[in-house]
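Protein Record: Sequence and Backbone Structure Tokens
======================================================
Tokens: labelled as protein backbone structure tokens, with as many entries as the chain has residues.
Task: work out the structure tokens from the sequence, keeping to the layout shown below.
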Amino acid sequence: MSLINDLINLDLSGEKFIAEYIWIGGSGMDLRSKARTLSGPITDPAKLPKWNYDGSSTGQAPGEDSEVILYPQAIFPDPFRRGNHILVMCDAYTPAGEPIPTNNRCNAAKIFSHPNVIAEEPWYGIEQEYTLLQKDLKWPLGWPVGGFPGPQGPYYCGIGAEKAFGRDIVDAHYKACLYAGINISGINGEVMPGQWEFQVGPSVGISAGDQLWVARYILERITEIAGVVVSFDPKPIQGDWNGAGAHTNYSTKSMRDEGGYEVIKKAIEKLGRRHKEHIAAYGEGNERRLTGKHETADINTFLWGVANRGASIRVGRETEKDGKGYFEDRRPASNMDPYVVTSMIADTTILWHP
């Protein structure tokens, strides 16, 4: 094993470097990647070559016409290979240049490139919750085999071997994201044991989706190394256990300026009027999580409040006091597509006129 580690850590500083192309597979949640060798360091994704893959093996194309084209969109330093090696977030197109049906980035980019959206400079902070599972059992890390731990209460932001399970993975992910230039702003243990959260943001526009997807990719790679499974299921364990969400904090320039609280209230009113459309796009299985219990609002009910974690939309006390700031959309599930959620919030609050 020492020889393998030595080879993995070989210093390749020279004319050749490795680019790991990343894309989203046919389920909308399965990340895929493959690597290629390039000459000379590149920092502009527009200068990277397009590439192709077998879409029939990812559920994205028929076998008789299987070629799907990867368009590089964002570059991040590679925390696994380091040096000048890079991770490349891509989206997928047909050979004719049409976005394939699972390419949600393309539509999001159109919304974020609208002049009215650009003028408002939308900021996002996404709280990504996830659950670490024992590989062979698909049972939460730290839970007794075939059994349950003590009730919720001591685990949220808890410390100690009987409360925090998988911290080495969480800290490795935190540092790897910082190395990769992702604007990861924090981590914490969550209410259910074996569940954790990391936050990405504030990020502007389309970069929020790029950064969250690459942060998920890095987490998947680290859990692969650790022999642990990461789950983004919004309710991995039924019963009196918290689900997993992706609370999305949001503000526009108008909301951050003086008098922004009135803009926030008007935006929330718009979100309420399109509640069903948003819920339909906020992640699969969310009905198992949004029950009105465990710090959620019922999936069929839209309500907002100040400091209310049982609401669909929560406004912070500081925002209310300052008369400007941001709000938190608590409805998105942990398995949501950040390209869909972020662009939909911008579309509803900035571009949509009922």
Observations:
- The chain has ten helices and 13 strands.
